[in-house]
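Hi Q.,

Before the meeting this afternoon, I wanted you to have the zinc ion prediction in hand. No need to reply - just skim if you have a minute. The sequence and ligand are here:
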Amino acid sequence: MKEIICVDLGGTKTRCGIFDIASSIPKHVSIVATPRHKTGEDVLTKILDGIRTYFEGTDVTAAIVVGAPGPLDIEKGIVIDAPLFQNFHNVPILSTIQDEFKVPTFVQNDANLAALGEYKYGAGAGSTTMIYLTVSTGVGGGIVINDQLLTGSRGFAAEPGHICIYPNGNLCGCGHRGCLEAYASGSAIESEAYRVVHQGVKTELLSVFNEKGKIQVEDIVRLANSGDSVSKNILIAAGSYIGIGLSSLVNVFNPDKIVLGGGVSNAGKLLLDPIKDKIATQALFPMSEQVTVSSWVIGDEAGLRGAYAYGLQQLGNEL
Ligand SMILES: [Zn+2]
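Predicted structure with the ligand bound:
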């Protein structure tokens, strides 16, 4: 039986899975902590260890697919830079894997693969044009049109976290100002919580801060759901910013589905409702009414299953 080995390199966890070529459900998945504070070589070693475990037990490995944070040179399979990691520049993932295992190897942006996973097997099923937005530490995403990832001329599309929603606004990790990521990422949401606490606004967030010494998105979601209006307003504001960004994308791509993923999407309606409101009022009619917005269905394994789908496509198989 031919098999595909897939790796999803995340900011905190790295998933490695093995698929029979005829099934989109992984036979086995292993999860290890990503050594993000170490060097690119250390991260690469973890990836190779994960692949080796499966490779040694397979009959025929048809392909190896790796999802990695960008910006990423897809042709050469080199991660040019990964701001989430401490020392991860020009890491030659593709050539290192090919040199050792000598099978067809493909490297693609992790958020693009998650988009493809949700499109094929999750919340995007049945869609023709889908926009996927992942909101976690940062804001990423992918666009799938008629089964194909939109990769752009050199493979760097799509980066919806860095569309400008606020000229001369907050500084983003990319170095520019006013990006969506600077207003609606998990980090931006937590910064807003710290800001209101330090301003002395009356909120349950203060007790969390006093107790834990920090405030995390899950605390904000929990308190919002239990009636803390300040926490609720922080999430509504983030959702509104996401809605503003997505309205522009609706106008450009006329998607039938928008799927929201990533840890912050666990806020559910608190985030989805303001997104829907903004699209309804800011995107052009009738496109504003032709799109549905929902949370991811596959969740954390979307990237891995998208890697499988991408591997099949690259090998020339029908999805
Ligand atoms: Zn940016």
